[in-house]
Specification:
Two copies of one chain form a homodimer.
Chain A: H1 3-13, H2 21-40, H3 47-57, E1 64-65, E2 72-73, H4 75-85, E3 94-95, H5 102-117, H6 121-149, H7 152-168, H8 173-184, H9 200-220, H10 236-240, E4 262-263, H11 274-287, E5 294-301, H12 303-309, H13 318-321, H14 325-335, H15 340-346, H16 351-357, E6 360-364, H17 366-371, E7 378-384, E8 389-394, H18 407-421, H19 426-436
Parallel strand pairs in A: 5-6
Antiparallel strand pairs in A: 1-2, 3-4, 5-7, 7-8
Helix pairs in contact in A: 1-8, 2-4, 2-5, 2-18, 3-4, 4-5, 4-9, 5-6, 5-7, 5-9, 6-7, 7-8, 7-9, 8-9, 11-14, 14-16, 18-19
């Protein structure tokens, strides 16, 4: 059996009773983290543009909920708007070796479809696991060459979202094969927007979630797809990768739970900045160094960081600031924190941050690059104003599986996310947290949030 | 000014009064041809799947019309369903050197948006010209390497559709730049489905038209896109082409009317089979040869024909039969015609066609390949059962700009398309023809069809 068909067989056979307790626990934690991100994006550009588009093109009401404004609509438009808002503040989860943000695409599609289909909490968790396990393996399969040009969360995200919805619908192996074909041939999204402060990152997660819904609903109705969309001679890897590894598609299915390897984001910036941010924070705390005492910082990074971050020198928007290594390290050095509030209030306007930004440069590091993307190593070298050369290293950025966030830390992050947009009060946040920690017992999801 | 920005400036400045009469005439002819294709697809799989999806996810009514069933919906869903149905019977127009089917994406998006926006016939024609001129040049820019893996009508079609809608909305240069970014980063669709009798070709044209609508409406509302989505370091050409030619993007803008180079399809098969079909027909008529007298046929073809057609040996569906060189030449040899009716009634079941199919093979021809895609040369060599070797050549397949269809021929084709699906009577077809020949004077398009 070829790897794509083996993956489809696994997805079809995956049973809730098969899921280890740790997977269910982490599934709920990832859902809470996604929910916080989706609410944190409420009201912020470009989310209202997606809300207005849904209003113009979609039905006036419906069973699926747009989290940012509470409106009911069809599953397609709820997935679209929630996919946009949950990726906006750059606090959603990330899987390292696939470089995929699974939550923003999987939960945006799965919750919308679950509300439409009257699914239970157990159904949603099982669907999410299917989406994570498939999406992560497909991302790993597409390889590093893919990520150089393509935004994996956009391309592979379409397949991950589709798989989650297909699982909600109880697809068999043949349907999952069609589904991968139908979702895969819609896979799109390139990095070019980054240098322009464009809104495409939200468009990407929105479209991946929504097109995943489209692929699943049309497959359920009988739309036939390519049988080897991933590995075929004219498939995704042939067109968009030069280092695809078919073996990754069915890597230890049912034994390795890739969902457990997913990282929570701690800093509110692009994940490529986190290892250096953690290393710099450790160094400055260890040495008792203040930002004025730093003459120069070299962040030793993998090539992917240079590809994604390299082109923003002086950010002009908060979103660009999250992709500016100098700005992120500036916030860490000057304020000890690079959370949403620091980005909004200080990243563009604080002269100390701007001054620190000028001291930072990135340098390709072969050792860091070789470990990537399985591990995201943080290495910085600092030259102090009194002439000392100092170095620090971290091997597991905060939020990584080996250094994960506890439930209390996740609850605190969730409340920070809600407070940032003002979408919910602290009390409402507490109620949401309580409901998510009982997700597996929920009989209906229409009023969950 | 870089080529993308020059193209955007041209699109913004394009004025109806600037369009030569021949462009307006051909625009109406292409619209009629598209309309016939959209109606010919009514009722046939997978079009009803798209209709049901629009019903499930879209509004219950709206100003834009689904041609296949007459329902009103929003512009997004009308573009989606009409994009599917107008590409189904493989009779829609094709531009040679870009290998783009412009009509199915441009008119599906533009008519839906024009009905939503209360545009006039002049608006629609101007929008279509913008979509054709941009889409064709972007297709040429992406080059032959792109078409090897990617279905240009799906990828570039998204941009062509978006440009047409942007022109309806009166975009300025800056908006067209954003629009290209927003549409381009949604560009998707690979050829892998062809070997599987999958429904992806209709999914591609449907999604290109619909995502073009999405890109335009959201750009109008302010969604910012990448400024160099085509030529940028992480743009479409970087990710999906190895032979992109930036100069093609603004090739003789305002002087060369690429729309006039678009071919009408005569045979109801994949366009890559047409040159050989015309050459074989000429040879058999010239020699007075009957199909039983043919021992072997070699079709001398360009590489693209082998890439697209090569993998279907014995078709199992009518759609696959249209991509089977042996079947197409079999219909020509046995029945003298390869129209929709022959495909439906004879392509899979006639033993004479099946026998002839076995006699056909394709052979790469350097001269034919060198001329492609600017010209699609037809070259066949036939070995007769009495041992003669016969050859024939045509340089302009029927329907090409140098051998185009007259208005009476287009009207006859239109009526054949309507009769095929039974979507309209002959009298209704006559009334539609009359209205389309007065498209430039139409004040409203809501009830045009």
């Amino acid at each position: 059996m070829n790897p794509t068909h083996a993956l489809a067989a696994f997805l079809a056979g995956l049973d809730y009773r098969q899921l280890p307790p740790a997977v269910l626990d982490r599934g709920e934690e990832l859902f809470l983290d996604w929910l916080g991100s989706a609410l944190a994006g409420a009201g912020a550009r470009p989310v209202p543009l997606f809300e207005r588009y849904a209003q113009r093109m979609g039905p006036a009401s419906g069973p699926a909920k747009i989290l940012a404004n509470g409106h009911g609509t069809s599953a397609y438009f709820a997935a679209l708007v929630n996919g946009a808002s949950s990726h906006l503040v750059e606090q959603d989860d990330l899987h390292n070796s696939s470089v995929l943000h699974p939550g923003t695409v999987v939960f945006s599609a799965a919750l919308a479809a679950a509300q439409d289909l009257n699914s239970t909490g157990k159904d949603l968790l099982l669907a999410a696991v299917a989406g994570y396990e498939a999406g992560i393996r497909i991302g790993e399969f597409m390889g590093r060459s893919h990520y150089r040009i393509f935004h994996t969360t956009a391309t592979v995200g379409t397949l991950a979202a589709a798989v989650a919805v297909g699982k909600l619908m109880g697809f068999d192996q043949a349907q999952f094969i069609h589904l991968l074909g139908n979702a895969g041939t819609q896979a799109a999204g390139v990095w070019e927007f980054l240098r322009d402060a464009a809104d495409s990152k939200q468009l990407h997660s929105a479209k991946a979630a929504a097109d995943g819904v489209l692929a699943a609903y049309m497959t359920a109705d009988g739309l036939a797809g390519a049988r080897n969309i991933l590995e075929g001679d004219q498939g995704l890897a042939a067109g968009m990768s030069t280092d695809a590894q078919p073996g990754r598609l069915c890597d230890r299915l049912g034994e390795r739970w890739a969902l457990l390897e997913t990282s929570f984001k701690f800093h509110a910036s692009c994940r490529h900045t986190h290892p250096a941010a953690d290393a710099l924070l450790r160094l400055m705390q260890r040495e008792g160094l203040r930002h004025e005492q730093v003459a120069q910082v070299v962040a030793h990074v993998h090539q992917g960081a240079i590809d994604v971050l390299g082109r923003v020198d002086v950010p002009t928007t908060v979103h660009q600031a999250k992709f500016s290594m100098g700005t992120v390290l500036g916030l860490i050095a000057v304020h000890g924190s690079a959370q949403l509030v620091e980005f909004r209030d200080l990243a563009l306007s604080d002269p100390n941050v701007a001054a620190f930004r000028q001291k930072v440069r990135m340098q390709f590091d072969p050792q860091v690059d070789a470990a990537y993307p399985a591990r995201w190593l943080g290495r910085v070298t600092v030259t102090s104003t009194d002439g000392r050369t100092l170095a620090a290293a971290i091997d597991d950025p905060k939020g990584d599986p080996n250094n994960t966030l506890s439930r209390p830390e996740l609850e605190a992050k969730f409340q920070r996310l809600l407070a940032f947009s003002g979408a919910r009060t602290v009390e409402q946040g507490q109620a949401l947290i309580a409901r998510v920690w009982q997700l597996r017992d929920a009989q209906a999801l229409g009023d969950l949030v």
